[in-house]
Amino acid sequence: MPQDFDVIIIGSGAGGGAVAYTLADTGKKILILEQGTFLPRETRNWDPAFIFGKDGYKADEHWEGPDGETIDPIVYYNVGGNTKMYGALLHRQRPQDFLEQRHKGGISPAWPVGYDEYEPYYMMAEHVMKVHGNRGEDLTEGWASGPFPFKAFPHERRIQEVADKLAGMGLHPHHSNLALNRDIDEPWRRPCIACGTCDPFPCMLHAKSDAETALVRPALQHDNVTLWTGSRVEKLIEEGGKITRVELVRDGQPMSLSADLVVVSCGAIQTAALLLRSGVANSSGQVGRNFTKHNQSGISAMDYDNPNPTVFQKTMSVHDFYDGSPEHPYPLGTVQLTGKAHWTRIMGDYADQGVTEERAREIQRYAVDFWFTSEDLPDPRNRVEWTDKGIKFNYRPNNRESHYELMDYFRDNYLRPQGFTDFMRSTKGLAFTWHQAGTAQFGTDPRTSVLDLNCKAWDVDNLYVVDASFQPSQGATNPTLTIIANAIRVSEHLRKDWFNEGGVSLEDYPLSDGYMADIAEANILAPTYVAGDDDSWGA
Hints:
Layout: E1 5-10, H1 14-23, E2 30-33, H2 48-51, E3 63-64, E4 70-71, E5 101-103, E6 106-108, H3 115-128, E7 131-132, H4 157-168, E8 174-175, E9 178-179, H5 211-219, E10 225-228, E11 231-239, E12 242-250, E13 253-257, E14 259-264, H6 268-278, E15 295-302, E16 316-318, E17 334-337, H7 343-349, H8 357-366, E18 367-374, E19 383-387, E20 390-394, H9 400-415, E21 422-427, E22 463-465, H10 480-497, E23 524-525
Parallel strand pairs: 1-2, 1-14, 2-10, 10-23, 14-22
Antiparallel strand pairs: 3-4, 5-6, 7-9, 8-16, 11-12, 12-13, 15-18, 15-21, 16-17, 17-18, 19-20
Helix pairs in contact: 1-5, 1-10, 3-10, 7-8
């Protein structure tokens, strides 16, 4: 019986977008399903009061927490997924992240596939995402088969001062690896204007390499690739070891579709929920387990003798403590800068500390904003469940002690000595699931893993998972580049083993392609624009 499509991709974020991009030239009939719509292109994209306000562009989503409390997660359901709002800092995982690591709080497991196998796909991912950086500055980085596609963003004056002082104290601050469409030497050639509304705003200019602009839109230039927005997948139907139907609701209407291949990329939480409510791919009992999301905290550091007028701040990272310090014989994590925090964001970040608007404005004027990321460890008790009420999010933080040690150590030994005297800090809670991973791990044993090494479900012949669900661990780096690299790796397997097509190479991910939102038109089936209704209009 003929199928409706050759490939159905559920989710248009980093993983799903990379699969669509990599398979687009095969000529196969590909459908991307996205439950959200295009994020509107409007002045509110750059309005801090809206972005950091009660609503912003956040999804109307509610989960049950581990103690029965209601969690209102900060998640975004749009074409491009959570990458529409991300900070566009794309580090590779370190080679040691693929090996077993002993942390103060326990063990981070080894991966069944090592860094060397991922390296060429990291190169392709860096190219398609237009990543900026300087090889050799970061002492913890793995080997690379070529340079970054674009040179690093330079530091503005105040950040250069901080970087110089850190270097004078023996550290190795490096330029952050940013996925933005900018020509540093001739900035008029590309759309990025290095503005103060990048992290965590959507880009009104489509100059941020998010999954929509860098992956989905280029894929849609191919006549065989189609995107349906407003299409929420409710259930996968398995018969005879294959997914035979994808049941969804599109613009309020129930539908049922079939495809030779089904690729799930809903994010680690929603992917687990879909598999659980479908009752598929879970003979191991591992679906939803081992959820990780990183330990993440921020410090606003003030030196009242030195205001910080920086516009584009997210240019510096410090990885000297990735594997520990002389006083800490275990991994600590990464330090990076965030975008320059607007006072409205500061009031939200420190709301529990009684920050007034006057104080928030003072912090904005003087602060350099640091972000700390440490690994949390996979634990089968940290899991996503599906109940008659929806998602139950059973997550309790672990490995926090070393995370706090990193913050204290960096503050006391490297910030205070260079003149910072006042600090505000906050650690992100359950609602912050930006770096979600681990709920459908890949492995070599179907009894203990959900996916095989190609990220195919052990139990189902035509079901693949390509978001961060597959990851056994995620080190302490931002996960998006690893998601894209793995999705390209899986897509090459699909090209060869399913479609008898050739593999992929760096030339398939060019730097010169136009990738503004205007380049794709015909294959987007979205609601018709209604005058005055911004939410109906594609960006």
